[in-house]
Amino acid sequence: MSHTMTLPPQQALIGGQWVNTATTIQVEAPATGELLARIARCQADDVEAAVQAARQAFAGQSGEWASWSARQRSEWLLRFADVIEVHHEQLAELECADTGKPMTQAKGDIAACARYFRFYGGAADKLHGETIPFETDFAVMTLREPYGVCAQIIPWNYPAQIFGRCVAAALAAGNTVVLKPAEDACLSVLRLAELAVSHSLPAGALNVVPGFGYEAGAALASHPFIDHLSFTGSPETGTQVAQAAAQHHVPVTLELGGKSPQLVFADADLDAALPAVVRGIIQNAGQTCSAGSRLLVQRDIADSVVANLCERFAALRCDTGEADADCGPLINARQKAKLEVRLAAAEADGIRVAAKGQLAVSASAGGHFVLPQLLTDIPEGHEVLREELFGPVLVVQVFEDEAEALALANSTDFGLCAGIWTRDGGRQLRLAKGIRSGQVFINNYGAAGGVELPFGGVGRSGHGREKGFEGLRSYTRIKTIAIKH
Ligand code: ADP
User: Fold this and answer.
1) Looking at ligand 1, which residue's alpha carbon is closest to its atom 19?
2) CA distances for 168 relative to 56, 115, 163, 213, angstroms
3) Which UniProt keywords are present, listed alphabetically (predicted)?
4) For residue 271, what is the enclosing H or E element?
């Protein structure tokens, strides 16, 4: 960590004011295990104040947010995208230290955050309803209205990016927001919120309540005065927040985990496919809901592909985010321990670690590093093929033909993303249609983050869509007005 790094407020943002909480939470740097910062620990009463502030701002009882036209919101969001870019270095430094991810990835995340504000800034005044042909003596129109107070509970793996995709879309549509960032990493979010306030975002439009999930998160999800809930995190917590929100019939968008397959056929361009397969699993040390965590490879090329990947995995270097190696640490000791238990069980079940990366000699012993690894010889139906490991671990499955590839691709309860690598156009489309998932990439994986591309899951990966215009629409609801004349 650089000595010049300026830390954001250890407070909550409520109604345009930074307020102290009774206690704070210590945040550690994943690369060293050392104390990095303290953040506010919001309780139910802080969440109550934040929801009330958001409600008043939405209703026009405080500040000017409710009076802003779509064009004014658009202009502010576009200006804020520029502000993020001006502070790019500092935000990336915070993201890198706080999450442990390599600096290049942290920089990419801040650039993506700015792009969300630019995309939704550009879209804010282009979102409209329809007129509907009905009986001849009627005129019917639909209005796309904001929900009101949007509760947003976000995780620690991509704080700045997820802040961008949720907050920019919700504000663009005219909502107000109460955001609960994750206790493990939220410094970039706090700095972004500080910048938003200092660049004249009206009071109460954005409120931030840092804290633990079981305290601030639970209080927010169950609050009777939220109008929409967007949650990104684990399937288990997703169930809990959805149940809490259901008590008040609050609509929910859930972006949960994944066990996304990369299908590599014998006719694929392997020079393009294999580096993408590696990137798809080591990005953010595999702590990515859309990680390509299963490799499905056709039998004819399986041995040579595994041999090639072994070389690539053996060459991967793990180090601190600042060192900007291939792979950083996991977020905390708990995640590391959880993964190591699963890896030990896999080895005990005869699964082979075909290759492992290396830890840089300079890496701190206190860092939560798990080496990137490639697992082969996996018994059918084993848990490492079905469960999200949330680490830099790629599991290999071999298929004979297209039908088996499709069956394996669809053999988990998840359905977030899939990659298909083949030159056969018919097969590309047959598989793209047949795979149960929210996104399918053909001869690429991830489309460079795809701010503009609707994203979300099927089954245990969640429901609802974020990103792109679809994400913006999901922060609105339709009102139908029928006029008899
Ligand atoms: P992880 O296990 O990877 O930390 P979670 O799904 O638990 O993932 O966390 C995602 C977000 O949900 C975080 O902001 C966390 O604080 C929050 N959270 C955790 N538990 C709850 C809960 N019971 N109610 C609401 N939010 C929660």
Assistant:
1) 213
2) 20, 10, 8, 23
3) Oxidoreductase
4) helix 270-282
Given the residues 255, 388, 402, 466, the one annotated as active site: 255
438 pocket-lining for ligand 1 (C-beta < 6 Å): no
Name the residue at shortest CA distance from atom 15 of ligand 1. Answer: 213
Residue 240 Cβ contacting ligand 1 at under 6 Å: yes
Asked if residue 2 is part of any domain, the answer here is: no
CATH code of residue 133: 3.40.605.10
Domain-embedded: residue 456 = no
Angle, helix 88-99 to helix 103-123, in steps of 10 degrees: 120
β-bridge mates for residue 296, sequence order: 263, 397
CA distance 479 to 170: 18
Q: What is the pTM of this model?
A: 0.97
406 and 470, same structural domain?
A: no
Answer yes or no: 255 catalytic.
yes
CA pair distance 443, 451, nearest whole angstrom: 19
Q: Ligand 1 test: best mutation among 42, 158, 189, 237, most atoms within 8 Å of CB?
A: 237
Domain shared by 81 and 18, yes or no? yes
C-alpha 295 – ligand 1 centre gap (Å) = 28
Q: Is 457 contained in some domain? A: no
The tens digit of pLDDT for each residue in 394-439 reads 999 999 999 999 999 999 999 999 999 999 999 999 999 999 999 9
